[in-house]
Amino acid sequence: AQSVTQLGSHVSVSEGALVLLRCNYSSSVPPYLFWYVQYPNQGLQLLLKYTTGATLVKGINGFEAEFKKSETSFHLTKPSAHMSDAAEYFCAVSDYTGANSKLTFGKGITLSVRP
Amino acid sequence: DAGITQSPRHKVTETGTPVTLRCHQTENHRYMYWYRQDPGHGLRLIHYSYGVKDTDKGEVSDGYSVSRSKTEDFLLTLESATSSQTSVYFCAIRTPQAVEAFFGQGTRLTVV
User: Which of A34, A102, B21, B94 has the highest local Cβ count within 10 Å?
Assistant: First the structure.
Protein backbone atom coordinates (compact mmCIF):
# COMPACT_ATOMS: atom_id res chain seq x y z
CA ALA A 1 0.00 0.00 0.00
CA GLN A 2 1.16 3.52 -0.70
CA SER A 3 0.69 6.58 1.45
CA VAL A 4 1.73 10.22 1.73
CA THR A 5 2.39 12.28 4.82
CA GLN A 6 2.29 16.05 4.74
CA LEU A 7 3.08 17.30 8.23
CA GLY A 8 1.21 20.37 9.35
CA SER A 9 -1.80 21.86 7.63
CA HIS A 10 -0.69 25.45 7.25
CA VAL A 11 2.53 27.25 6.36
CA SER A 12 2.91 31.02 6.39
CA VAL A 13 5.82 32.86 4.79
CA SER A 14 6.65 36.44 3.94
CA GLU A 15 6.72 37.57 0.35
CA GLY A 16 10.22 36.97 -1.00
CA ALA A 17 11.03 34.27 1.57
CA LEU A 18 11.86 30.65 0.86
CA VAL A 19 8.94 28.29 0.53
CA LEU A 20 9.45 24.74 1.84
CA LEU A 21 6.57 22.28 1.90
CA ARG A 22 7.39 18.82 3.17
CA CYS A 23 6.21 15.49 1.82
CA ASN A 24 7.15 11.97 2.84
CA TYR A 25 5.85 8.90 1.09
CA SER A 26 5.56 5.18 1.55
CA SER A 27 5.57 2.81 -1.38
CA SER A 28 6.48 -0.82 -1.87
CA VAL A 29 7.81 -0.17 -5.36
CA PRO A 30 9.72 2.73 -6.93
CA PRO A 31 7.20 5.55 -6.79
CA TYR A 32 5.97 8.20 -9.11
CA LEU A 33 5.60 11.43 -7.13
CA PHE A 34 3.63 14.57 -7.78
CA TRP A 35 2.84 17.99 -6.42
CA TYR A 36 -0.50 19.55 -7.27
CA VAL A 37 -1.70 23.07 -6.45
CA GLN A 38 -5.28 24.13 -5.85
CA TYR A 39 -6.31 27.77 -5.97
CA PRO A 40 -9.57 28.74 -4.27
CA ASN A 41 -12.67 27.27 -5.88
CA GLN A 42 -10.66 25.58 -8.60
CA GLY A 43 -9.53 22.11 -9.51
CA LEU A 44 -6.07 20.68 -9.00
CA GLN A 45 -3.26 21.72 -11.31
CA LEU A 46 -0.10 19.68 -11.75
CA LEU A 47 2.97 21.59 -10.50
CA LEU A 48 5.59 18.94 -11.18
CA LYS A 49 6.22 15.22 -11.23
CA TYR A 50 9.00 12.74 -10.65
CA THR A 51 9.08 9.52 -12.63
CA THR A 52 12.64 8.33 -13.18
CA GLY A 53 16.02 9.89 -13.84
CA ALA A 54 17.06 13.25 -12.43
CA THR A 55 16.03 13.54 -8.81
CA LEU A 56 15.65 17.32 -8.89
CA VAL A 57 12.60 18.20 -10.91
CA LYS A 58 11.48 21.64 -11.93
CA GLY A 59 7.89 22.65 -12.29
CA ILE A 60 5.78 25.62 -13.16
CA ASN A 61 5.85 28.99 -11.41
CA GLY A 62 9.43 28.55 -10.16
CA PHE A 63 8.77 25.52 -7.97
CA GLU A 64 11.04 22.52 -7.74
CA ALA A 65 11.20 19.32 -5.74
CA GLU A 66 13.89 16.79 -4.96
CA PHE A 67 13.33 13.06 -4.74
CA LYS A 68 15.40 11.54 -1.91
CA LYS A 69 14.96 7.81 -1.82
CA SER A 70 16.97 7.34 1.38
CA GLU A 71 14.69 9.77 3.19
CA THR A 72 11.50 8.76 1.33
CA SER A 73 10.90 12.45 0.79
CA PHE A 74 9.79 14.73 -2.01
CA HIS A 75 9.84 18.23 -0.56
CA LEU A 76 8.64 21.20 -2.58
CA THR A 77 10.62 24.45 -2.62
CA LYS A 78 10.58 27.88 -4.18
CA PRO A 79 13.37 30.38 -3.52
CA SER A 80 11.18 33.45 -3.29
CA ALA A 81 7.49 33.43 -2.45
CA HIS A 82 5.02 35.56 -4.34
CA MET A 83 1.58 36.61 -3.20
CA SER A 84 0.10 34.60 -6.05
CA ASP A 85 1.56 31.39 -4.55
CA ALA A 86 -1.06 31.41 -1.81
CA ALA A 87 -2.99 28.19 -2.36
CA GLU A 88 -3.35 24.64 -1.11
CA TYR A 89 -0.66 22.17 -2.10
CA PHE A 90 -1.04 18.43 -2.33
CA CYS A 91 1.66 15.79 -2.58
CA ALA A 92 0.65 12.52 -4.24
CA VAL A 93 2.16 9.13 -5.01
CA SER A 94 1.42 6.49 -7.61
CA ASP A 95 3.00 3.10 -7.94
CA TYR A 96 2.78 2.42 -11.68
CA THR A 97 0.89 3.32 -14.81
CA GLY A 98 -1.25 0.25 -15.36
CA ALA A 99 -5.02 -0.01 -15.33
CA ASN A 100 -5.26 -0.21 -11.55
CA SER A 101 -2.85 2.63 -10.94
CA LYS A 102 -4.26 5.43 -8.86
CA LEU A 103 -3.01 8.53 -7.12
CA THR A 104 -2.88 8.59 -3.34
CA PHE A 105 -2.87 12.08 -1.89
CA GLY A 106 -1.63 13.66 1.29
CA LYS A 107 -3.95 15.81 3.35
CA GLY A 108 -2.68 19.02 1.81
CA ILE A 109 -0.92 22.13 3.11
CA THR A 110 -2.31 25.63 2.87
CA LEU A 111 0.35 28.19 2.00
CA SER A 112 -0.22 31.79 3.07
CA VAL A 113 2.05 34.59 1.86
CA ARG A 114 2.32 37.74 3.98
CA PRO A 115 3.06 41.07 2.31
CA ASP B 1 -8.63 22.12 -17.67
CA ALA B 2 -7.74 19.29 -20.03
CA GLY B 3 -11.22 19.17 -21.58
CA ILE B 4 -13.05 17.99 -18.47
CA THR B 5 -16.49 19.27 -17.58
CA GLN B 6 -18.21 18.43 -14.35
CA SER B 7 -21.91 19.03 -13.87
CA PRO B 8 -23.55 20.38 -11.90
CA ARG B 9 -20.93 22.65 -10.32
CA HIS B 10 -23.03 23.19 -7.22
CA LYS B 11 -25.91 21.21 -5.80
CA VAL B 12 -27.92 21.20 -2.62
CA THR B 13 -30.01 18.13 -1.98
CA GLU B 14 -32.00 16.58 0.84
CA THR B 15 -31.03 13.55 2.86
CA GLY B 16 -32.32 10.36 1.31
CA THR B 17 -32.60 11.62 -2.25
CA PRO B 18 -30.62 10.14 -5.15
CA VAL B 19 -28.00 12.34 -6.79
CA THR B 20 -25.99 11.86 -9.97
CA LEU B 21 -22.87 13.81 -10.80
CA ARG B 22 -21.52 13.82 -14.33
CA CYS B 23 -17.98 14.00 -15.64
CA HIS B 24 -17.57 14.60 -19.35
CA GLN B 25 -14.21 14.59 -21.15
CA THR B 26 -13.26 15.52 -24.67
CA GLU B 27 -9.74 14.04 -24.51
CA ASN B 28 -10.67 10.40 -25.20
CA HIS B 29 -8.61 9.34 -22.18
CA ARG B 30 -9.09 5.76 -21.10
CA TYR B 31 -8.90 6.13 -17.35
CA MET B 32 -11.32 8.20 -15.27
CA TYR B 33 -11.55 8.74 -11.52
CA TRP B 34 -13.88 10.17 -8.93
CA TYR B 35 -12.39 11.70 -5.79
CA ARG B 36 -13.93 13.52 -2.87
CA GLN B 37 -12.15 16.33 -1.05
CA ASP B 38 -12.75 17.00 2.61
CA PRO B 39 -10.85 19.28 5.02
CA GLY B 40 -8.15 17.35 6.82
CA HIS B 41 -8.44 14.37 4.50
CA GLY B 42 -7.08 15.63 1.21
CA LEU B 43 -8.49 13.79 -1.79
CA ARG B 44 -9.76 10.24 -1.44
CA LEU B 45 -10.59 7.92 -4.30
CA ILE B 46 -14.22 6.82 -4.57
CA HIS B 47 -14.33 4.81 -7.81
CA TYR B 48 -12.36 4.61 -11.00
CA SER B 49 -12.78 3.31 -14.52
CA TYR B 50 -10.22 1.78 -16.86
CA GLY B 51 -12.51 1.54 -19.86
CA VAL B 52 -16.11 1.50 -20.97
CA LYS B 53 -18.12 -0.61 -18.54
CA ASP B 54 -14.93 -1.39 -16.56
CA THR B 55 -15.01 0.13 -13.10
CA ASP B 56 -13.61 -0.62 -9.68
CA LYS B 57 -13.87 0.61 -6.12
CA GLY B 58 -11.57 3.04 -4.38
CA GLU B 59 -10.96 3.53 -0.69
CA VAL B 60 -14.24 5.31 0.14
CA SER B 61 -16.78 3.65 -2.18
CA ASP B 62 -19.55 2.85 0.32
CA GLY B 63 -22.77 4.66 -0.61
CA TYR B 64 -21.59 5.41 -4.15
CA SER B 65 -21.99 3.72 -7.50
CA VAL B 66 -20.62 4.61 -10.93
CA SER B 67 -21.31 3.90 -14.55
CA ARG B 68 -19.41 4.41 -17.76
CA SER B 69 -21.34 3.56 -20.91
CA LYS B 70 -19.27 5.83 -23.16
CA THR B 71 -15.60 6.76 -23.13
CA GLU B 72 -16.38 10.39 -22.55
CA ASP B 73 -18.82 10.13 -19.64
CA PHE B 74 -18.31 8.86 -16.09
CA LEU B 75 -21.28 9.15 -13.76
CA LEU B 76 -21.18 9.08 -9.98
CA THR B 77 -24.43 8.24 -8.19
CA LEU B 78 -25.32 8.63 -4.56
CA GLU B 79 -28.24 6.24 -4.22
CA SER B 80 -29.54 7.84 -1.01
CA ALA B 81 -27.60 10.94 -0.04
CA THR B 82 -26.46 11.39 3.56
CA SER B 83 -24.99 14.42 5.32
CA SER B 84 -21.61 12.66 5.47
CA GLN B 85 -21.51 12.86 1.67
CA THR B 86 -21.42 16.64 1.76
CA SER B 87 -18.14 17.28 0.00
CA VAL B 88 -16.41 18.59 -3.07
CA TYR B 89 -16.22 15.95 -5.77
CA PHE B 90 -13.51 15.92 -8.41
CA CYS B 91 -13.27 13.97 -11.60
CA ALA B 92 -9.86 13.17 -13.08
CA ILE B 93 -8.66 11.60 -16.31
CA ARG B 94 -5.46 9.90 -17.40
CA THR B 95 -4.03 8.22 -20.47
CA PRO B 96 -2.30 4.83 -20.22
CA GLN B 97 0.95 6.46 -21.34
CA ALA B 98 0.96 9.10 -18.62
CA VAL B 99 1.54 8.87 -14.90
CA GLU B 100 -0.26 12.07 -13.98
CA ALA B 101 -3.96 12.74 -13.88
CA PHE B 102 -5.79 15.91 -14.89
CA PHE B 103 -8.64 17.25 -12.81
CA GLY B 104 -11.95 18.92 -13.46
CA GLN B 105 -13.18 22.00 -11.63
CA GLY B 106 -15.15 20.08 -9.05
CA THR B 107 -18.75 19.78 -7.89
CA ARG B 108 -19.70 21.16 -4.50
CA LEU B 109 -22.46 18.96 -3.05
CA THR B 110 -24.33 19.85 0.10
CA VAL B 111 -26.69 17.33 1.66
CA VAL B 112 -29.13 18.91 4.12
Answer: A34
CA atoms of B9 and A17, how far apart (whole Å): 36
A115 close to A67: Cβ distance less than 8 angstroms: no
Which of B38, B59, B99, B107 has the highest number of chain A CBs within 10 A, making it the mutation to test binding with A? B99
Residue B1, pLDDT > 60, answer: no
Task: Give A14-34 pLDDT, tens digit per residue.
Answer: 999 999 999 999 987 788 999
Q: What is the pLDDT of residue B99?
A: 83
DSSP B77-105: EESS--GGG-EEEEEEEE-TT-S--EE--
Q: Which residues of B touch A45 (CB under 8 A)?
A: 103
Q: What is the pLDDT of residue B72?
A: 96
Distance, in angstroms, between B105 CA and closest chain A CA?
Answer: 4
Query: What residue type is assigned to position A54 of the chain?
Result: A
Return the amino acid letter for A22. R
| CB-CB under 8 Å, A44 with B42 | no
